[in-house]
User: What shape does this take?
Amino acid sequence: MDWCRHPLFHEDTDQLFRNAQLESVKAWINDPAQGALPLHARIQRAIRQLILDGALDVGRPLPASRALAKSLEVSRDTVESAYSQLHAEGFIERRVGSGSFVSERAQQLPGRGKPHHAAGGKASPRLSQRGSAIFSSGGLRDFLTPRPFAPGVPETRSFPLQTWERLERQVLKEYGTRILLHSPPQGMEPLRRAIADYVNLERGARATPDRVLVLTSSQQALSLCASVLLDAGERIFIEDPAYHGARKAFDAAGLECVPIPVDADGLRVEHLAQVSAATREAPKAVFLTPSHQFPSGATLALDRRLAVIEWARQHESWIIEDDYDSEFHYEGKPTACVQGLDPHERTIYIGTFTKSLFPGLRIGYMVLPSSLVTPMTVARTLLDGHSAPIPQLTLARFMEGGHHGAHIRTMRALYAKRRDVLAQLVHEYLADYLEPRVPAGGMQMPCVFTRDIPEREAVASARQAGIDLLGLTALHASSRHQAGFLMGFAAHAPHEMEAAVKTLVKVLRALTSQSPA
Assistant: This one.
């Protein structure tokens, strides 16, 4: 081809755009990912990228706007708009009577001549030790859709949405545009008051509104505890097995997690004193899930609660109590929370409405010792500033009107039935593979393998079949445990669970048939 006669070139210039460059511009125009951009912006960004990649040399003339418009089959005004923006940004120069040229300033652009799509992919980013630890941990994977048997996912189809909508309209009408502003970082006072009343009545806590800190989640609370109460390198006692979100929050903060075994009565509290005496320095904190130990479901016995309180007093250590689904206790009356039994103010109580109401609410809270309210609130301002005021005030009215308590009672009865249904289904269909450990409360059931099954492969195969399971092995620090699954039962009706169990039978049968004899 005679490049000088190509319509993209002036008759008195050398080659301006090659075929590859023209195709690059066309690709930007037709790329669905750029579909939200106006046409002139797509052309402007395509030419800008050619300059950044070094495909267009400094001082090189660009095609006349009329010629480029003809080749791209767009209007001349569209190309003129693209050129004008490139000129304004300093990528090109426009000379009256001569045309448009790649600016000499482009020579100094960072990364010029290094295409953004270079072979070999992007280089690994340089992260801090903390950033590398967070990245390597994989973070936390929320179950975005309620597939069986995702643990910790509540039933949302039965939520009284009309009541919630009515209360939210009341909030908007009363507060008007004031509700569109920031809320206090500690949380809206009506919600802090409602939370204090609730945990005092239902959990036997010692709470006042001025000691409640409203947050977006219990995970945020754990991260605050890790960063405010301990320094990197310091030790913290955790249960073994333990809630993976807590372990990852502590690991990300650079803490050393010291596992303490769990039995049918919860944390083996005598190990706290033994480890403290052996090392001559007690860890600065202990993390507990005393109402329903995660994942075993065990309830921490009263004598052990009192013993851990005494240990914390003696060593001036903190107790981090995660009461994540204490509302759902199915056998007898629930035991009072550790915070309510602690007269020394060494306990940080963490609660959430993600489990009791719905995950999209994004409201959790801490009940703090008086001395920690201000430090924790200040630290919270560095994370996200505050929680959204509209859902806070709506939730406060939902609690004050008795709707929260009514919903909890309804769900408690529903979840108890579903727990029993899942246990029966496991016995009926999965007895050759799993043994259920029926918990006294909570929203998930640990089931251990009764034969040799590769846990990780089973979890992956089940996910491909539409079933979400949490393997038990990753929750243990020691190897002295049985592999298996943590199976959530709260979000699905009996017929839905039965269908999923039958699918899981096929998954496990296929895995065991592949295993060597």
Remarks:
- Residues 1-14 have pLDDT under 50 and may be disordered.
